[in-house]
Design goal:
The chain is α+β, with helices and mostly antiparallel strands and 351 residues long. The chain is 30% helix and 25% strand. It contains 10 helices and 14 strands. The chain has helices spanning 17-36, 45-58, 63-76, 80-87, 89-92, 184-191, 197-206, 252-258, 272-285, 292-298; strands at 10-15, 99-103, 114-121, 131-137, 143-148, 151-158, 163-167, 213-218, 224-230, 233-239, 242-245, 320-328, 333-338, 347-350. It has an 8-stranded mixed sheet, with helices on both faces. Strands 11-2-3-12-13-14 form a 6-stranded antiparallel sheet, with helices on one face. The longest helix is centred in the N-terminal third of the chain and has 20 residues, at 17-36. The radius of gyration is 18 Å and the shape is globular.
Length: 351
């Protein structure tokens, strides 16, 4: 990957959720159509049918999110079920990427909450399509989100200080199939309409979710929560000091429910276990001193070797770090570095 400026395009939309969605759809129309061509293993007739069924569930869900998506459909001239196919990226194929952490209380330098993640992918073409999106509507809190084409809220923070990052549970379980329900990416957008962790946890619990996920939430009061989910089941774990996740369930109830079986030997293609061990070791080493600069150093990690560390360069192994970011809820701050964190500085954004 060439050395590019550590700057993301910043999109901004205002008005009612439908008007803001329409503006987004108009601006992103070409990218949305291109993204549909790159859905893992293609948009088959069976997948189109599944997207239509999920749309029937979603349209009765959180109204501001539904209104935004309807606006996107008008602006892009794509029907809602087609847009649902983009929201269902995670359900169409569990991805094996991303490493996340959260810290609060005695684990951080000032006692406030902080959450972070690397966004890893096996698709280099994703790099130029990423943006940051500022959304301010008359029905939802203002948000700053990490945005992919058609997935306008992949992670982010809102004006109340509620922030969310997440990882896939994709290495295992391979036997947990998606069901008709609200897609993971849409659920992230819904979380960011909430005021705090308590409201977000309640929303996730009452939602009929379509797929599997591992969320980390943090709010301005200092609360940090981990949510491990699969269709029909969500386990919420409150973090007292440190929490780390890669791409497998760590909650015993979820491991049992999913019949999770991890590979006996880690490889570059299935590297969730070594990354989980590495992020846990790094955060533990800095317990009591974690702040922004410490997180930035953690996400530049190249030990023990490439492919089994935090900053992934895609060689060996298929995955590379597209972006890394962290949120400081008490200050409504979001820091992000493009591409390989070892080559790019973090840029600060604030609501």
């Amino acid at each position: 990957m060439p050395l590019l400026p550590s700057v993301h395009p910043i999109l901004e939309f205002r008005g009612s959720p439908r008007a803001a969605g329409k503006s987004y759809g108009e601006q992103q129309a070409v990218l949305l159509r291109e993204a549909l061509k790159h859905i893992p293993k293609g948009l088959t007739s069976r997948r189109r049918h599944y997207a239509r069924e999920c749309w029937q569930v979603l349209r009765r869900w959180e109204r501001p999110v539904v209104e935004f998506l309807l606006g996107v459909a008008v602006g892009s001239r794509l029907p809602p079920p087609e847009l649902m196919a983009l929201q269902l990226f995670e359900e169409y194929g569990h991805m094996r990427h991303c490493t996340a952490m959260g810290a609060t209380g005695s684990a951080t330098r000032d006692g406030s909450a902080i959450i972070a993640q690397s966004w890893d992918d096996d698709t280099p073409m994703l790099y130029p399509a990423v943006s940051l999106l500022r959304l301010r509507t008359d029905a939802t809190p203002a948000t700053l989100t990490y945005a992919l084409p058609g997935r306008w809220a992949a992670a982010g923070i809102n004006e109340h200080g509620l922030a969310v990052v997440w990882t896939s549970s994709g290495v295992r379980p391979s036997l947990v199939e998606p069901r008709v329900g609200v897609p993971t990416y849409t659920l992230v957008a819904g979380i960011l309409t909430c005021r705090d962790c308590a409201a977000a946890v309640a929303l996730v619990r009452r939602t009929r979710n379509a797929g599997c996920f591992i969320f980390l939430l943090a709010d301005a009061t200092g609360e940090v929560w981990g949510l491990e989910g699969m269709p029909g089941r969500v386990e919420a774990i409150q973090c007292r000091d440190l929490i780390t996740r890669s791409n497998h369930y760590q909650c015993r109830a979820m491991r049992c429910a999913a019949k999770q079986r991890l590979p006996s030997r880690s490889t570059f293609a299935y590297n969730s276990q070594p990354r989980a061990a590495r992020i846990a070791a790094l955060t533990g080493r800095f317990r009591g001193h974690i702040d922004g600069p410490v997180i930035e150093s953690i996400y530049r990690d190249h030990q023990p070797k490439q492919g089994l560390c935090i900053c992934l360069h895609g060689d060996p192994g298929p995955y590379l770090t597209v972006d890394s970011f962290y949120a400081v809820p008490a200050k409504r701050e979001f820091f992000i570095a493009r591409g390989y964190v070892c080559r790019h500085a973090f840029t600060r954004h604030q609501l």
